[in-house]
Amino acid sequence: MSKDNHGREIDYLRISVTDRCNLRCLYCMPEDGVTWKPHDSILTIEEIERLVRIAAAEGFSRIRLTGGEPLVRLGIVDLVRSVVKTAGIESVAMTTNGLLLPQMAEQLKQAGLQRVNISLDTLDPEQFTYITRRGKIEDVFAGIEADLAVGFNPVKINAVVVRSLNQDLLTFAKLSFDRPLHVRFIEYMPVGDSCGSGGTGWTEADTIPNDELVSMLNALAIADGIGPLLPIAKTKSPQGWGPAQYYQFDGAKGTVGFISALSRHFCSECNRLRVTAEGQLRPCLFSDLEYDLRTALRAGDDASVQETLRRALKAKPDSHHHRVGTERLMSQIGG
Ligand code: SAM
Ligand code: SF4
């Protein structure tokens, strides 16, 4: 396992496999989409496979495929199959909006994918169309069913919480009651606004700090008669739990998690590097510092890819120091 200059063990690589998407979430992408990167600027499937092999030899053992929307990337199932088989890779997961899961979940499971997180910010059909600017919520519900049906485990639902959206958080949290669904509330991050993703008018004031969110939910849950959320010890966290703080309603099959990149940031536990669809390696989500992997991959220079991974690792900052607002959009970084 590789260590960075701050003593953190870095074994997790998040790879964005495309900058394209079949949705246009308000907080992630402009309505007209972005100027898509030309195909030849995006890493090919073979280049990603080679990058994973080199990264695995450097001690990266966990891979998450993200995007844009990873399921719109041609060849994604083959990529999963090959990443899963790479020596040294122990876990392969994906983050998706879920729209294409009904058609693809079975193939992905067969290819060896272990976990699929689905992003869904509301249970209200109209609000869903407002947030995503297109798309039907029923398709995501069908995606969640497919995720459960093929046996991905655990099944997590990631919901970005935005104060001015006034989402129905209790109904959301209660999804964790009857079925083994793990609902995770994510603080809204004002990322990418500097290149005009916005138009949302949302600012940091729209980020609801986790502690406030837990109190809000507990008040609603107690009034509803189901009682407060009970904290789960980190030591009892199943695999792939990541930086969330977890709770559970008494008697529930699933859990409710809270991920805070801002109010209680987890920089000291950060264990990851990110690769953009264009093959740029980012030591920190909130920093625009990037290292070019694509040139070395295209030159067939594995030693230089290895060297770039090492340089990025050493340059990983101790914390984002509350700097937010990146040049790239979230859809380009991969969340
Ligand atoms: N398309 C896939 C999806 O939506 O799951 C994968 C890519 S998306 C960029 C990855 C995650 O980033 C999603 O859960 C999304 O909600 C989250 N995300 C995007 N923009 C965000 C923002 N400004 N603040 C917090 N989370 C954000
Ligand atoms: Fe697409 Fe995911 Fe961004 Fe929504 S959050 S626009 S689904 S990449």
Description:
The protein is an alpha/beta fold. It is 30% helix and 18% strand. The protein is built from eleven helices and 14 strands. It has a twelve-stranded mixed sheet with strand order 9-10-11-8-7-6-5-4-3-12-13-14. β1 and β2 form a beta hairpin. α1 packs parallel to α2. The longest helix has 15 residues. The model has no long low-confidence stretch (mean pLDDT 88). The site of S-adenosylmethionine (SAM) has 20 residues, from β5, β7 and α11.
Write the layout of secondary structure elements.
Blueprint: E1 2-3, E2 9-10, E3 12-16, H1 45-57, E4 62-66, H2 76-85, E5 91-96, H3 101-111, E6 115-119, H4 125-132, H5 137-149, E7 155-161, H6 169-173, H7 175-178, E8 181-187, H8 210-224, E9 229-231, E10 245-249, E11 255-259, E12 272-275, E13 280-282, E14 291-292, H9 294-298, H10 302-314, H11 330-333
Parallel strand pairs: 3-4, 3-12, 4-5, 5-6, 6-7, 7-8, 8-11
Antiparallel strand pairs: 1-2, 9-10, 10-11, 12-13, 13-14
This protein binds S-adenosylmethionine and iron/sulfur cluster.
